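Subject: mismatched residue count in predicted assembly?

I count 222 residues in my input, but I want to confirm that the predicted structure covers every chain. Input:
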Amino acid sequence: MRNATRDFQIMMPASRARALSVVVILSLLVGYIGMAALTLEPGPLDIALTIVKLVGLTGAILLFLSNYGQMSQRPESRLDEREAQIRNRAYVLTHQMMVCALFAAFFWVEAAGKLGWWLPDARAAAEMITAYAMASMALPAAILAWRDQSPAGEA
Amino acid sequence: MTRRELADAVGVNPQTIGFLERGEYGPSLALALRIAAVFDVPVEALFSLGPFPALGEQLARLHREFL
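Triage response: the counts match. Full output below for your records.
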């Protein structure tokens, strides 16, 4: 059963949280994966990708602090049964997506070793692992926002 | 009784009461019983596996049965 304790959270309508989640995912893909795939000398593109990474990181933190992010972290004793149910579904989907990404990476590494495709060096691997970790942090809140069926403005 | 008052009485988020009102969420037996207790009615007066007949139909049936 819920109690009256309130967390610090940034109240965000579903539409804004959805838009933010798109920004975060695109920034992760472009910033971190781009940085991993390209070997860049310091220059304009390097600075641009760093800015994109920072946008993604800031967006992920904002999403984490939003009402959706806080719902994804709240103890089950402070969720009602419907909230617990939709959060569990969000975590199951996050888990499935992260496992798929992990298996895709395993297959790529195996295939790339045999076929001579691109393989990440230590720096690129660190970038990709960071993107993976940030995606796993942001996805539950993003999924909760995208699946929120509440009419706009409902308390 | 407001949505928030009912939510506080049964220990759920007011949004969950909205979902129940719109028929978009099926409550657990425990929650259904708590809500029925608040209104002091049997649980089947509030929840049903099928749609409830319209109030007019129910009144007409009662009228036929008792008059």
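The mean pLDDT of chain B is 91. Marking this ticket as 'not a bug'.
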